[in-house]
Amino acid sequence: MLTEQSAATVRATLPAVGAAIGEITERFYDRLFTAHPELLRDLFNRGNQAAGTQRQALAGSIAAFATHLLDHPDRRPDAMLARIAHKHASLGVAPEQYQVVHEHLFAAIAEILGEAVTPEVAAAWDEVYWLMANALIALEKRLYEESGGPGPRRWEVVERVEETADVVTFRLRPADGGPVRAFRAGQYVSVGVTLPDGARQIRQYSLTGAPADSVRQFSVKRVHGGATPDGEVSAHLHAHVRPGDVLELSEPYGDLVLDAGDDTPVLLASAGIGVTPMIAMLAGLAAGSHRGPVTVIHGDRSPADHALRADHTSYAGKLSDADVHFFYERDAEPGTRTGLVDLTDIAVRPGTRAYLCGPLPFLRAVRARLIDKGVAPADIHYEVFGPDLWLAQG
Q1: Is 315 known to be catalytic?
Q2: Which pLDDT tens digit goes with each residue over 178-218?
Q3: What is the 3-state secondary structure (H, E, C) of the chain?
Q4: Would you call 98 a catalytic residue per the annotation?
Q5: pTM for this one?
Q6: Which of 29, 127, 129, 140 is catalytic?
C-alpha cells in the first residue's frame, strides 16, 4: 500500500516518531483546540482529554497503523479501522475534518521533531496519514449510507429505571413518532446532552434491549472520578433526565456484534457495566433460533452492584442450553462464586465464539485464558468503553 520509497523512509523514522508520538499528539491537541475550541466543547470527550487517554489512543493507533503497513504491505488493518470508523460515525465526523486534523497533526510533528522532518520524511508520513484517513472516510461513508445519515435524532424518555445505586436505565421513543430501526445486538448509540456551561458533550452507551424493540434502551453508570473529575455526562443524566425529557441519539453503531450460527457455541463474558452489550446479545439469542450452548460469565463487586441482573438471569433462562457463572467480590449468594472471574473450571466448547466487555485488565485476562482453552484468537471479540488503548497497543 505504501510506495517503496515511503515504506523505506517510514521504516527508518518509525523509532524516532514512535518515541516522540506522545509529545506530538499532546502538541496536536493543543493546536487543534486553540484553533477550533468548538471541537473540544461540542465533539471531543473533555474527560478523556483531561485524563490524557484520548492522546494515548491516537498516538498508539497511528503507530500501529504505520507498523502494520510495513509488516503487512498487502493487507489493511481492517479490524482497527472498522472500530475507529464506527466511533467516528456515531459522533457524526465529516470528511472535511480529516483535513483539519492533518493540518495540526503535521504542524505538531514538525514542531517536535524539527530538522529531522525533511521533505522526504514529511511526504512519507503524509502518505501514511492519508492512507488511514481515506480508508476511514470510505468506511464512514458506507456506515452513514446504511444508517440513513450522520445527523442525530430527538428521542423522548418514556421510562427511567434505577437499576443500582449508580446505574440508571433509560427507555426512549422517537420524538417525531417515526419508526425505530432494528440494530445488531452489541451496538451502541451516541447520546448528546447540553451541559450547564453550554457545551454539547457526547457519550456512547450500549443498547440493552432486544434488537427489534420499538423503543431504545440504554443504561448509564454514574462515573465517580476519584482522583479525576466525575463523569460530567453520566452525572448530568443521573441528576437531570426524567420521563418527558428529550435527548439526541445517533443511529446504532459498533463492531462488537453478535454473529454466530444457530448451533455455534457462544460465550459472553463481562465485568461491571460491561454487562450492557451482553444483555442485548442474550436478548437476541433468546428471541431467535439459537440452539447451540451459551456460556454466560459476569463479574461484579457484589450482587447489589450487578446492573440488569434480573435481565441477565431471565434471558439466560430462556435459552435451551445455557451455563451461567456470576462472580462477586463480596456478598456472593448461593449459586454464585466469590472472587474475580476465573475460567479455570469452566468448560469452553470447541468452536466457541466469545464476546467480552469490561475493564482492560479483565479483557486481557479472559482473552488469555480463552486462548489457553483452545479458542481461536479470531473468534474472540471485545468492547472496551472509552478510548481503546488495547487496540492501539495491539
Answers
A1: no
A2: 999 889 999 999 999 999 999 999 999 999 988 888 899 99
A3: CCCHHHHHHHHHHHHHHHHHHHHHHHHHHHHHHHHCHHHHHHCCCHHHHHHCHHHHHHHHHHHHHHHHHHHCCCCCCHHHHHHHHHHHHHHCCCCHHHHHHHHHHHHHHHHHHHHHCCHHHHHHHHHHHHHHHHHHHHHHHHHHHHHCCCCCEEEEEEEEEECCCCEEEEEEEECCCCCCCCCCCCCEEEEEEECCCCCEEEEEEEECCCCCCCCEEEEEECCCCCCCCCCHHHHHHHHHCCCCCEEEECCCECCCCCCCCCCCCEEEEEEHHHHHHHHHHHHHHHHCCCCCCEEEEEEECCHHHCCCHHHHHHHHHCCCCEEEEEEECCCCCCCCEECCCCCCCCCCCCCCEEEEECCHHHHHHHHHHHHHCCCCHHHEEEECCCCCHHHHHC
A4: yes
A5: 0.92
A6: 140
